[in-house]
Design a protein that fits this description.
Structural class: mainly alpha
Shape: rod-shaped
Strand content: under 5%
Helix content: 55-70%
Radius of gyration: 14 Å
Largest sheet: none
Number of helices: 2
Order of helices and strands: HH
Length: 36
């Protein structure tokens, strides 16, 4: 059993999902501040 299968897409245990959300929030903030 892989860790991916065990945790599924639960954001509490799935680090990739957390990183994806944070990256999206950061990119939106950069866009708002720079207009690019």
């Amino acid at each position: 059993m892989s860790l991916e299968a065990w945790s599924g897409k639960n954001p509490v245990t799935h680090v990739g999902k957390i990183n994806q959300i944070r990256a999206h929030e950061l990119s939106e903030k950069i866009h708002e501040e720079t207009g690019k």
